[in-house]
Amino acid sequence: MAKRALVTGSAGFIGYHLCARLLSEGWQVVGLDGMTTYYDVRLKARRHAMLSQNPGFRAVEGLVETAGLVRELAEGADAIIHLAAQAGVRYSIDAPRSYVEANLIGTFEVLEAARATKPAHLLMASTSSVYGANTEMPYAEVHKADSPMSFYAATKKATEAMGHSYAHLYDIPTTMFRFFTVYGPWGRPDMALFKFVKAILSGEPIDIYNHGDMRRDFTYVDDLVTGIVRLVGVPPAGGAAGPMDSLSPVAPFRIVNIGNGAPVGLMDFVLAIETALGRKAEKRFLPMQAGDVPATWADASLIEALTGPLPRTGIDEGVARFVAWYRDFYGV
């Protein structure tokens, strides 16, 4: 019998790629997405439409924070993978209430669903933003993450604490992912890669924050999805994988970084985009934005200890794949 997964945020960037991978591996997938207007809903609708071509996929439109909805959809699921969230560091300054509703209340609904239905594994997305003001790098899961620099990061750190409490109280095997700057085809329009490509092709300037002195651990979406799918089969149990393991001493709960483990300078990232497009960008250098951090860098030793070595797509190849998708999708 095919395994069943409930994926929240299934029409999102990462959710779409994850559902496609699960379907290709024979899973039955129920995908829940709120189709919110944070960015172009047509992009989300196209992703769901492509997934729906597979008879193993069932699309459900609804907000994750709707009382009882996730509980209804989770019945019989072997794995619940919770990706739905209000994303974005900068938007959390302008619209913080949406982060309370989607991230806090939404995660509460997922936890209640897991408490009722007892999946073999509950997996939930956090973010590298929870490392906040930490200066010790690479970021390791056992490092403190108590100084969030944005309300977005604060809500995601809160979901980690919520997840741990439910894992302890109700014996729910739970893994939290901390994602590092995910990019690739079908990416979000609010992310730098999408914005830069669109601006350069339109002959408009791109905004370079902190005057270009920034580094990000860019992680190609296919590599990230490989990590998620492998972790589905590794619920927290037994002994620690080593001193780097974040396994809780009082609950079947673990936090895992998923990142490339190789930070890239912002100006090198821009150069990769210019090379892929065959055009130079007009650059507008600006100060650091509120809530942002100058660098991220994942210590990937824990996930590799749990799942084996992960693919690591280089920035030039990954950016070129995104540009090819963008040109094809938008006909430019």
TrEMBL record:
Q: Which residues form the NAD-dependent epimerase/dehydratase domain?
A: 5-233
The entry's keywords: NAD
Task: Give the superkingdom in one word.
Answer: Bacteria
* Record has Coiled coil as a keyword: no
Q: Name one Pfam family in it.
A: Epimerase
Quote the protein name from its UniProt record.
Answer: NAD-dependent epimerase/dehydratase family protein
Species source reads Paragemmobacter straminiformis
